[in-house]
Amino acid sequence: MATKTKEAPKKAAAATNTGRVVQVIGPVLDVEFEPEQLPELYNALVVELEGRRVVVEVQQHIGRNQIRAVAMSPTDGVVRGMSAIDTGQPITVPVGKPALGRILNVVGEPVDEGAPIPPDAERWPIHREPPKFVDLEPKTQVFETGIKVIDLIAPFVKGGKIGLFGGAGVGKTVVIQVWSSAKRAFSTTSP
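The chain above was modelled as a monomer; its predicted structure follows.
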């Protein structure tokens, strides 16, 4: 699962494995498939709506030829009886040069109003094995945000996890907007 993958053609999977939505509760969908045709855990399913598509990820086999999946976007408009197409692969995101400095959503689509990601870009699954300990670099590097107060008081570590917590109206969104505009103004890319 830690291997590099290219996005597989979705038409082949669509012809072989299509399920039917039987229940929608918020972001959770239950989908029924033909016997012996259940998709693998973490496979992506696509529900087509008018003008958009909802990507859901298989989380559990719940019996009765049904799976439980979590949506990666709002499920407004998804109703019982709609078709859910198994892509035959997990959700993947672009990696390498095409993704460098871009803002992508969880399904790998750009949300920064930039150019589209080329369809032939290398993509990796979002669920992968962690790197082996011997492959890790033992030194810690600081990720420079370009916002002096963050770099000085609470520096981010490259490759680390970052959370932005705060109450309502304290400026979380403003910090992200300043960060984004600073990136555009100086034409920098994050590693």
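Helices lie at 10-16, 148-153, 172-186.
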